[in-house]
C-alpha cells in the first residue's frame, strides 16, 4: 500500500467525523491516476473477532474495484489460505494481479514466485515492498486496466450521475427531466453488468446520465438494497464528471448522504446538491435559507457545492438543475494560468506568512502551477512540505476559493518539496525560453 501510493505526496482527505471502513489512497503511475483501497487480512473458515467483518469489507472493495491485487508471501510459499482466496477471487469478475511479496532477491524471487502459477491467476509478479523492486512491473500491468485521464477529459459528453438513498426521488426526477427532453437509452459497451446509461441532448450539448438502470429498476433483493445501492452509486460516481446528490427534504442530510458526499470529494467530481420533495415542506420566507444553512453545515467539507430545492412531483425548479450542472462542469474543467496562481499565493502569503518551526525554520513557497483539471489540481513547490501544517494548508485552500471561485468543484493542492537550487535553475530556464 505504501509502495504504490508513494509515487507522489498521497492526497489523503482527512475529514474528522466521517468514519470510513476502508483506507483509500491516491497514487499514480506514468500518466494514470488511481486510488488504492486497503483491506484487512482475508481469512475463510474462521468467524472469530473481526474476520467476518473484514470479509464483508473485502467484498465491498471488490465490488467497486477496477482491478484487484492479490498479495501472497513469497517466503512462506503457497498456502491453503492462498488457494481459498484464489478460488473465491476467480468467481468475481474483477481482473486479479498476483503480487508475490518479500522477494528481495531477483533470482530467488523468480523461483519463489513460480509455485504461485498453480493458483490459476496468471503471471505471478515477484516484488519486494520493502526494497521497492518489482513494483514497477506490477504497476505497468496495473495501468493497462486504467483509462488515461486525457480520454476522460476529452470526451465531449457530460457524464452525470444521479445518486441518493432509496426513495429520495431519483427515478421521479429522472422522469421529470426526461419528460421534456429527447432521450436515448444506451447500454455501455464492454460491460457485462446491466448498467444502462441514458443519453440526452439539450441546447447542443450531450448529457450522459450514468447507469440509470440502477435507478429505473429498483430493490435488488439478491444483494440487499443497501449493499447493492451504495456500491452501484460509488461506481456511477467514478464514471461521472458531475454528480447530482439527491437529498430528501423530509429526512434531511443522513449518514448515507455523508458517505456519498465523501466519495464524490475523494473521486474529485463536480457536484450539485439537489434537495427534493420541496413541495412537502411548509415554508415561510426563511425556510430556504435555514435549510441551506443546515445542508452546508452537515456537508461542511463540500461547502463549495451549490444547493437547489426542487420537487419532482410539481416540477418546480427541475429544469434549473441543468444550469447548475453546466456551471459546475465549467468550473471543474477550468484552467487558471500560472501567473494568476502565483498572484493568489503571493497575496495569501502577504496576509499570513507560512509557519515557522520551533527550530526557527520557516516554510517557503517558491511557486505554484495548475497541473490538471477535473478537478482543478495545483502543485505548490515549497522548501519542505512538513513545514506547512494542516491549518496553513486549509488557509491556502480557502484563499484559492476566495480568489478563484471554483464553485461546484473540489480543488486539490499538492505540496511538493523542492530544493532551492533546483527551483532557481528552473526559473532561469524559463527565463531563457521567454
Ligand atoms: P428513488 O428510489 O430515489 O428512485 O425514489 P422514487 O423516485 O421512486 O420516489 C420515491 C417516492 O417518493 C415515490 O412515492 C415518489 O412519488 C415520491 N416522490 C419523489 N419525488 C417527490 C417529490 O418531489 N415530492 C413528493 N411529495 N414526493 C416525491
Automatic annotation (TrEMBL):
Name one process (GO BP) from the record. Answer: ribosome biogenesis
Positions that bind GTP 2: 164-171, 211-215, 276-279
Keywords of the record? GTP-binding, Nucleotide-binding, Repeat, Ribosome biogenesis
Q: Which GO terms describe its molecular function?
A: GTP binding; ribosome binding
- PROSITE patterns per UniProt: G_ENGA
Residues binding GTP 1, per UniProt: 38-42, 101-104
Q: Which SMART domains match?
A: AAA
Entry keyword annotation includes Repeat: yes
Domain EngA-type G, by residue range, is: 158-333
Family classification: Belongs to the TRAFAC class TrmE-Era-EngA-EngB-Septin-like GTPase superfamily. EngA (Der) GTPase family.
Question: Quaternary form?
Answer: Associates with the 50S ribosomal subunit.
Write out the function statement from the record. GTPase that plays an essential role in the late steps of ribosome biogenesis.
Question: Under what name is this protein listed?
Answer: GTPase Der
